[in-house]
Specification:
42% helix; alpha/beta; 11 helices; globular; 7 strands
């Protein structure tokens, strides 16, 4: 979009009324592209994909969804939130990554053949990029094949994210509520956010990236925790103890402890899981 030099208008975050007002002001005859993420990685909230798709159809716009924080982790075949919502076929361009959920390197867009040919032929950032090494491409392809047929990893991932949030809230740590696997623990102070990260690493040998401005707004600084399917309950307990120690040491405010019933995956799902500790817990 920057390279095209076309006019750009920014719509307020997940505000579909504002989006519709901007679309309506341009008229149906003008070419328009709505660009949005499916899962926003700092707050962990979802985009109203169905509403955006409906507005695009109504106002003659194309859609471009960034699924990099959702592919591999959502949808029955790991296609992302648009797949989970049954809307992949309604979106013009889907962007994904072979990193993050697929654990490799590289990225992609999926669209119809004409659009892909145009990008392949005219996008300098593609034309002058070297291809992925065969070993990297092979690892990415293997991960995609695995996650297209196995839900065990996704179920375990979601279970661990719920467990981490549950344990942090029970300890009075300020977790930002959201429906996704993203676990933001709010510090709201840039210096203390960095100090918390350094103290966690130095005292407890746990590394969590501090998120400060300009990635987030000033006053919204946070530690962003990333649970994985390979983490265990014992590691979650150790993490909570470490964060309580850091919060106490730095004089950071606690919240009133919140205990929400923890929903565990069913035994049937666990029986097919690649992680023995999950199967044992379910039994």
């Amino acid at each position: 979009m920057r390279r095209s030099g076309c006019e750009k208008k920014i719509w307020r975050h997940n505000d579909v009324a504002h989006l519709e007002a901007l679309l309506a002001a341009e008229g149906k005859e003008r070419a328009k592209l709505i660009v949005f993420e499916s899962l926003y990685s700092m707050d962990g909230d979802f985009a109203p994909i169905a509403e955006i798709v409906a507005l695009a159809k109504k106002h003659g716009a194309m859609t471009y969804i960034d699924e990099v924080h959702a592919v591999g982790m959502y949808g029955p075949r790991g296609g992302g939130l648009s797949e989970r919502e049954g809307l992949m076929g309604e979106i013009d361009v889907i962007e994904g990554t072979l990193a993050k959920g697929f654990g490799s390197l590289g990225g992609y867009i999926a669209a119809d053949a004409t659009l892909i040919d145009a990008v392949r032929s005219y996008a300098p950032s593609f034309i002058f990029t070297t291809t992925l090494p065969p070993s990297v491409a092979a690892s990415a392809a293997a991960a995609v094949r695995c996650l297209k047929t196995s839900n065990a990893e996704r179920e375990r991932h979601q279970a661990m994210a719920r467990m981490v949030k549950h344990a942090l809230r029970a300890a009075g740590l300020p977790v930002l509520d959201n429906p996704s696997h993203v676990v933001p623990v709010m510090v709201r102070d840039a210096k203390k956010c960095r100090a918390a990260s350094e103290l966690l690493l130095r005292r407890h040998e746990i590394y969590i990236q501090p998120i400060n401005y300009p990635t987030v707004a000033k006053g919204a600084e946070r530690l962003r925790i990333t649970p994985t399917p390979r983490h265990t309950e014992a590691q979650v307990a150790r993490l909570v103890e470490a964060l309580v120690d850091v919060w106490t040491t730095l004089g950071l405010p606690f919240e009133e402890a919140r205990v929400v019933p923890l929903r565990r995956p069913g035994a049937d799902a666990a029986a097919n899981c690649a992680y023995p500790e999950m199967k044992k817990a379910a039994e």
